[in-house]
Amino acid sequence: ELHNITGVQVTLYRYDKSTPWKFTDGIDYTFSASPVVTIQAYGYLILAKDLTTFTARYGGMPPGVQVLEDYSGRLSNAGERLQIDMPGDVDELGIRQYIRIDRVNYSDGLHPEDCPGGVDEWPNEADGRGKSLSRKVSIDYGNDVANWQAATPSPGAANP
Which of 53, 92, 112, 140 has the smallest count of CB within 10 Å of its CB? Predict the structure, then answer.
């Protein structure tokens, strides 16, 4: 789920680079260049692996919420890095560089060996127990465990 926390529409395409945004870690997905994908002011966009399965589990979306489907890869239940980037310049080798927009290194709360101080502070209720990881404050830093909680899934709606 992507949430536009600004009061203006966000276009997931850089016209000056003729290239769409994409996920560069966690899953493989490049947003469409035609039609260009936008998220309305304060709006939500859902990216689902399979729309039929998603709809069967969560039902219909609130009005105005876009749902896109068919990404590659699978997020690890144990934790990993998920990152969305926008295109930057092409380097001297002709390789497009990307600019990080947001990232989270999440965990299932069960891997203290991977955490500073040997304490995994991520909520483990989101590890197959019916909850999802949800930001507490959408405008706060995304890669801070203190800004995440286990919550009842509510795709396309404001956090509880």
Answer: 92
